[in-house]
Amino acid sequence: MRRLGPGLLLVVLGGVGCKEEKPAPPLTSLAPAPLAPLVAEPTDAGVADDAVFRVKAAEVYGSEVPAKALRLELAGESVQLGSERFTPVHPGELARLVERIQGKAVLVVPDADTFFAQSSELLEALRDSAGEVWLKHPDAEVAYRLVLRDEDGFRAWLAEVAPGKLRIIQRSDGFELTTSVGKLPGGDPNGPSVPVRGGKQDIATLRRGLERLKGRFKTAEDICLVPSFGTEVAQAARALSGIYTAPGEPLFDALCLIYPNPPRRLDGG
User: Fold this and answer.
1) What is the DSSP letter of 115?
2) What is the pTM of this model?
3) How far is residue 211's CA from residue 48's CA, in Å, rounded to a whole number?
4) What backbone torsions phi and psi does residue 17 show, to the nearest 5 degrees?
5) How many CA atoms lie within 13 A of 199 on its CB side?
6) Residues 164-206: pLDDT tens digits?
7) How far is it, in rounded angstroms, from Cα 257 to Cα 150?
């Protein structure tokens, strides 16, 4: 075998040393492109005489109302079940209500004025005792099957390792659509993703925003609605319509509703 002379060896080694390596692409280039801001379409609104935008009524979608569910009607801090009325903030009445709903499907029918802050004891009892929990839409014959979580359960859900962790934060000024990697921006980056328009919820734009997030997080199976605790239960039921794209066709398999932790009464004293 012929050996290379010193001069030729240097030329070969020099050629190897001069080979340029392509730099690795920055990590930011591997991230998906950010979603464009969500803005309401002109067809979703008209202009009133005073030039204030008002929301065009969106189609109300949901699932069929369960025919055999116990019908539990809200009335402030009281609830009506058949001919019986219960006040869940009273432990004795709450225990009697639990006996009635144990293991059964329950349809919660909201009135116009009951707030989540008044319903925490009831919702906790439903979470722990009912076989199924449904919330009826106040304006249509559709309902939504719910997974109920209190604030502690919500934090545990957020801590799970899963893509998306999509949630709808329902505020007095609109809906904020939030994911594990940030919020979906609206027309105003400092405001909610879907602001109220003409004093009403913009369900049409909410629905489009959720469809966009589902397209990004294709494997996400659940979504949580997180209303402020001063929100009426009826308003949360209206918001749940935005998770459906057609009758009986939700974007997500499981709908989670967050409610406030009930006050814990101290023993004795």
Assistant:
1) B
2) 0.82
3) 29
4) -70, -25
5) 2
6) 999 999 999 999 999 998 899 988 878 899 999 888 999 999 9
7) 8
